[in-house]
Amino acid sequence: MQDLAGPALLTLGLVAIGGYLLGSIPFGVILTRAAGAGDVRSIGSGNIGATNVLRTGRKDLAIATLILDAGKGAVALLIARHLFGSEAMGAIAGGAAFLGHLFPVWLGFKGGKGVATFFGLILAACWPLGLLAAATWLLMAFALRYSSLSALVAAALTPLYALLPLPALGLPAPSPVVVMAIFTAVLIFIRHHENIGRLLKGAEPKIGAKKA
């Protein structure tokens, strides 16, 4: 058993490191600098995600950042799942990519809030689950006009959606996907602690609100 444990742990470690490094690629920073739009960390909220990239006035860069941030988590999960034929390996790689986006080694572990990467991961892991999460975000955003609150509600409900007994939609989701959904939801709440504080104070800006 000990002879098998060593290679297994090494494989797990390599999958996690590979996922983390892929997730650590700061596309928001790379794209804005390459396009001559400056360092996205020096404007707005200082975040590296698509919402803050949009504050440069470049919708094209914001859309590209959104797609790439969502894609890197999905790619990490899909590659690992394909190579090893294992939902668990896919979830480990995906979870590590998510962690990399939030705490990228290249930026002193100061990364994004993970919403785009979260949706990319969930869609890749189980597309019906991803659609439920996305629909929740859209419904909340339309009803209440708070992007952060929409993300928090979608993240909180996704692990519950994953447990629904709906075989026609591939649910309940495999256990590794449920664990990954819980892991990423907890991290999203941690990274949104400032938004939560503003929401409680009624100071969080709404979608489309203009600055005074």
UniProtKB/TrEMBL annotation:
Recorded metabolic or biological pathway in which this protein acts: Lipid metabolism; phospholipid metabolism
Protein name, entry field: Glycerol-3-phosphate acyltransferase
Topology versus the membrane: Multi-pass membrane protein
Transmembrane segments: 6-31, 88-109, 115-139, 146-164, 170-190
Name of the encoding gene: plsY
Source organism of the structure: Brevundimonas guildfordensis
Function: Catalyzes the transfer of an acyl group from acyl-phosphate (acyl-PO(4)) to glycerol-3-phosphate (G3P) to form lysophosphatidic acid (LPA). This enzyme utilizes acyl-phosphate as fatty acyl donor, but not acyl-CoA or acyl-ACP.
UniProt record similarity statement: Belongs to the PlsY family.
Signal peptide positions (record): none
EC number: 2.3.1.275
